[in-house]
Amino acid sequence: MATDARDVDENLKLDENLLAALPEGGKVVSVKPSGESDYCNTYRIEVELPDGGSEVFFEKEGSGDQGWGLVESAFTSESATYEFVPEHVPRPVSLGTYKSRPDKHFFIARFIEMVEDDTPRPESYMAAVAALHSRSMGKAPGGKFGFPVNTRFGDLEQDNAWSDSWEEYWTRQMKGYLDREDAAHNGEPHEELERLRPLFLEKVLPRYLRPMETDGRSVTPCLIHADLWPGNVKYIGDSDTACMYDACAMWGHNEVDLGVFRNPRYQLGKPYLKEYWKQVPISEPEEDVDSRNTLYMIRGQIMLSILYPHDPKLREIFVSNMRLLVERVQDEETAQSSQQGPTQSHL
């Protein structure tokens, strides 16, 4: 067990269970706030090792059932991604509960110095993403879609119950997100969203998900990060290697991770997508890739509307993209009907 060697009040010293997760014989010499989080506390912990060296750790701390969900999500997600791309993910160390405060929980990982104000170039950014997908492809437990625990996007719980079908899994998630988006707005009427919702669920999702699992095609689940906005991907020190963190992982279709690169909210765009496709083939049917990219982008936009319901622009953004896909499918159906011509009856 490590000891807390800081000259501070006993009430401010680190909890015994937290010290037990740090290097044996180490001495905690510094504890400082690290980063910003709307949902939990985060700290940088420096430990002096018995050999005279030092090691630095990152701690995420949460309270109550919600806090446990947050730190469990972080530990399980980071452990899964670290298994496949250890060069791109901070090494997870421990998940636990304070001995002195049974209602407080922690997640510890190795602290990595990152360049905070610089978004990695497409080559570095997508090397990490493509490596995660390629190395984990086909290695999902039982070949299923889902994850062992319900992970968190911010503090929004993600239903990761296992499924054999990608269409079933994604449709269930989207229905759940739309229900929670409605609840977050206290059932406030939105005529266009009410019109689009059944069309989106009953026409758009089958149109762009089902073809990947029919006519001899299938979706092979890989491990996806599921929150790859630029705040979660940074250069490691002065290297060209990108570090990914704060995952809300799941086993799913690899293209889900590409939705964020289309989102105009972030300064990413086509150069990042093009770099990814150099390393990972587009799923079949290839002609649907643009629509699938929009479909997966909508997930993140709905989640933001749930987390920040007082910003009406967030709701309008995802509604406009739902409308785009609904109209695209309707235009396609109209074109097919025209090609078939009028139905003739034979007496």
Automatic annotation (TrEMBL):
It catalyses: N(6)-D-ribulosyl-L-lysyl-[protein] + ATP = N(6)-(3-O-phospho-D-ribulosyl)-L-lysyl-[protein] + ADP + H(+). SUPFAM superfamilies: Protein kinase-like (PK-like) (SSF56112). Coiled coil: none annotated. It holds the Pfam family Fructosamin_kin. Keywords: Kinase, Transferase. Its EC number is 2.7.1.172. Transmembrane segments: none annotated. GO terms for molecular function: kinase activity; protein-ribulosamine 3-kinase activity. Gene3D superfamilies: 3.90.1200.10. PANTHER family: FRUCTOSAMINE 3 KINASE-RELATED PROTEIN, PROTEIN-RIBULOSAMINE 3-KINASE. This is protein-ribulosamine 3-kinase. It comes from Chaetomidium leptoderma. The lineage of its organism: Eukaryota, Fungi, Dikarya, Ascomycota, Pezizomycotina.
